[in-house]
Every structure is written in C-alpha cells, then in structure tokens.
Amino acid sequence: QVQLVESGGGLVQAGGSLRLSCAASGRTFSSYTIGWFRQAPGKEREFAAAIRGRGSTTYYADSVKDRFTISRDNAKNTVLLQMNSLKPEDTAVYSCAAVEDVLLSGARIRQASWYRYWGQGTLVTVSS
User: Fold this and answer.
1) Which secondary-structure segment (H or E) carries 30?
2) For 29-51, what is the mean pLDDT?
3) What is the pLDDT of residues 1-17, one digit of tens each?
4) Cα(114)–Cα(117) distance, rounded to whole angstroms?
5) Is 102 helix (H, G, I), strand (E, B) or coil?
6) Residues 64, 126, 98, 24, Cα dihedral to 10°
7) What residues have CB less than 8 Å from 51, skipping those under 6 apart?
C-alpha cells in the first residue's frame, strides 16, 4: 500500500514557475513508477510526466516537454515536478499516482488506468 500527498499548487501568472511535490509513504518507494496526471475543467485526465523507480528514466507528454522536469529523491520518498514557462492551458488539478515498476512497460506508463495509487490532487491555476 502506498499513500500519496501532493502539495505546491497555486496561482501563477503565465510565464511563471511552480514546483509540485508528491510525498509517499511506504518502505519500497524506489520500486514504484510515479506519474503526474492533470485534469482541466471539462476535460479528460491526461498524462503529464512519469519517472521510473530508480529515477533513471523519465517520460513527458509533448505538451509539457522542455518546460516540465520530473525528479525523485528515494531517500525522502518524494517526487518533484518543476514546471516552468507555464501557460494558461496548464491550468488543471495535478495528481500524482504510483504503480509497481514491474507492472508497467511501454505505452502503459502514459495510461492512468494502470496506476494503482492516487493522491488527492493539487490545483494549479495559470492566469494570462
């Protein structure tokens, strides 16, 4: 069982930056892939970024690539999402999710349905 808690959301102007944090419980954190997903009002949830358990491999949606950076500190059971050059279209509730590394491969990493544990989400609002 893994419990996830997000923090760091808020209101920022376009072009600004925010850093989201996902804090996890559990002693085997390094064996979990962590993904960040977002859901804008009236839209379906979409993949943003993910990082494998050992942190050696990261994945990004095309819409955030080169602007967002995902990283993790397994000693602190924490995953960070650094978001730069934010745009109004980045406005959404951002949630982190976890699934055991061994259960994910290829395209599954970008699919929310494969993740087993979810945080409650944190709201990011980017004003124009």
Assistant:
1) none
2) 96
3) 899 999 999 999 999 99
4) 10
5) helix
6) 130
7) 33, 34, 35, 57, 58, 59, 70, 71, 72, 79
